[in-house]
Specification:
Strand content: 5-15%
Radius of gyration: 21 Å
Oligomer: single chain
CATH topology of the largest domain: Aspartate Aminotransferase, domain 2
Shape: globular
Distance between the termini: 54 Å
CATH superfamily of the largest domain: Type I PLP-dependent aspartate aminotransferase-like (Major domain)
CATH architecture of the largest domain: 3-Layer(aba) Sandwich
Bound molecules: pyridoxal-5'-phosphate
Number of strands: 12
Order of helices and strands: HHEHHHEHEHEHEHEEEHHHEHEEEH
CATH class of the largest domain: Alpha Beta
Length: 397
Amino acid sequence: MLNQNVLALGKKRSTIREIFEFGNQRAKIVGRENVFDFSIGNPNVPAPDSVQQAICDIINTQNPASVHGYTSAQGAEDNRTAIAESLNARFGTDYSAKNLYLTAGAAASISICFKALAASSEDEFIVFAPYFPEYQVFIEHGAGAKCVLISAQIQDFQINFEELERKLSPHTKGVVINSPNNPSGVVYSDETISRLSALLNKKTEEYGHPIYLISDEPYREIIYGGIEIPFIAPKYKNTLVCYSYSKSLSLPGERIGYVLVPNTVDNFQDVYAAVCGAGRVLGYVCAPALFQRVIARCTADTADLSIYEENRKLLLEGLTSMGYNCIKPEGAFYLFPQTLEANDYAFCERAKKYDLLLVPGTDFGVPGHMRISYCVQTETVQRALPLFEKLAKEYGL
Ligand code: PLP
């Protein structure tokens, strides 16, 4: 007899993966260029040249036996130091290697945090819709805790504080935020972060135990229009930051990121040790060694993110002028418009007729919406717009 929970998870592909696979099948029939795949968040912008240079330099100059060897479980100290120093230079913090645990990407970082913090099956983690669907899997199946969902504040996709206040309880162990957000593209305002921090401080005092803020930040560098994005950790002392280089450096397949545990976290030493322990339990020890070294040399760089800004402008202006209703995203590379019928699955199914591949909002906890992942070539966006228009006409717009 197998573990039935994980068996079910393994048999059921995520909707995003289903759509992605459908696109691959269609590409064989109509040609790759005629499939408008807006389903998956796989950056199409290449990694910056500095990544290529770092790889060659490391391979050519370092001892071949050690380049590919194990590092310490939490990541080599000099690599962690380089990351800490870059955070300090940008955010005026005073982190060091002992605050960082290097991981195989944000997915590993988040699941490590849930595992480290969940002490019993009664423990609850709060997640705001719209959300990255894997949170629920990591919380319930990875950490054996409860996932408490807060419905979306549709008018702006900031936090629904009224529902949050109702659902915080003595069982609340942590609250997960993701800004810039997948799938809405919304960036939490300073006001949202301050209000959240004040509320969590108040509840921490009331319950007599810390409520951790798990800040999932893989899109931290992808912001538009010159806006300032608050660095969250210094604003709430019990914050654990989950970061990844998948999106900022276009390295999703290389699996590299980190958990940051600031000194301000209550029982910092124990929380950091629990993060190490969770990495051990989940088998994530020693993040990919070559890419630990690569990112340590590229901490100040990003891929060319200007293409996303151009795509955002084209799509937002194009869709809005056709009558689609959408909040202006300030970051990440997703648009999250309302679908033109209440049943978002039916709408996305209808879009397939034009080989427009979109993900139903229900998968992110917000029915009646669709996610458009625009980390694609600008030409794909340009050629897709007339198809979005044909689709809109079917609904009488
Ligand atoms: N968190 C969010 C909000 C994401 O959108 C993603 C990936 O798309 C991840 C985490 C996982 O990122 P990684 O590829 O670094 O594991």
